[in-house]
Records
---
Amino acid sequence: NAGVTQTPKFRVLKTGQSMTLLCAQDMNHEYMYWYRQDPGMGLRLIHYSVGEGTTAKGEVPDGYNVSRLKKQNFLLGLESAAPSQTSVYFCASSYSFSKADTQYFGPGTRLTVL
Amino acid sequence: KQEVTQIPAALSVPEGENLVLNCSFTDSAIYNLQWFRQDPGKGLTSLLLIQSSQREQTSGRLNASLDKSSGRSTLYIAASQPGDSATYLCAVRGQGAQKLVFGQGTRLTINP
């Protein structure tokens, strides 16, 4: 049981390049989330999904797109990377939105945009 | 808009001491409150979750309390150990909301 995994762990991009971050979970969770963590800003929700084939915007969605084609995978895409997107990106998943359910986090992807 | 504040930003104590980390939030209409631990370069690990109807939760040497009316939560760590050194994050989920709102964390160092 690997939990939540993220690929890649590190990436350096040039401004304008594109990339996709992959999140995978093996806990059969319905809900998946993408956050970014920045110094002085805490963790902020980018996009989330309440099930296969569904996505919704979070707090800071601009410049990002997501897809949930399979229940176990949640992809975060940057079409044209900008230096402001330099951050650590975390994926998380949870079984439901029940008040008793916690979110399980992946190890993070450190992205630098030059 | 919900805001979560954690004070202090950093704390350093000798091994063996009992300590308290503080978390405050501005909107008392919450669904639950969670405490997470984050080790350098790693993801977040959930420590304790307190539902809105609960006052406290305990796990081993950790005890978290919740006072919704005053907008406060505390994380009590008993008999601290060097392995407790990490950043501790508080997060609240508002009623009807899908997202967690995080504080900026308290970086805890336990000195042997």
---
Amino acid sequence: SQQGEEDPQALSIQEGENATMNCSYKTSINNLQWYRQNSGRGLVHLILIRSNEREKHSGRLRVTLDTSKKSSSLLITASRAADTASYFCATDGGGDFQKLVFGTGTRLLVSP
Amino acid sequence: DGGITQSPKYLFRKEGQNVTLSCEQNLNHDAMYWYRQDPGQGLRLIYYSQIVNDFQKGDIAEGYSVSREKKESFPLTVTSAQKNPTAFYLCASTRRGLSGANVLTFGAGSRLTVL
């Protein structure tokens, strides 16, 4: 079963705007990750946040984690057309390190 | 360059046929995975393998089989028992970091269509 649910399912913005997508999950976790997928391609790891962290930055990416609400958000600042992709959160379920469970994804469209 | 190679990229199969999807990695990763992705959906875990000659079922293993005879290779066979095999299949691998975090490296995927 899928652990995470992303919200919104789809997001359309203009270049230069910020994009925020959210992820909710069901069980305790050791860490939460965000991945990006260009259409018809494999996924690429973006950023990992541990359960004892509340916020993490990487370039134009900002991830927050609220373990009390079992939720995370990914913020992409100053978006570009090249950011157009689907974004997925993934969690480890708090137990088996070898098993990542992915959410349903947010499709982001950034128009020039 | 290190990475994961999946082949073929596109595959067409008639109903009742078994097909095997190849996944090879030269990253010296210990664990390998197969995920299935349906249109507009997330990824669902089919099988995973932590070491050579060992593998575990994921959430949707029925109708699939795997082998792990070499560290570099983790082929997936989609059998005729899989009722709805048309999907995008993704192979991934990982070497667990010192902190225990499990960051996956993915191949480019194989798209299987049943005619």
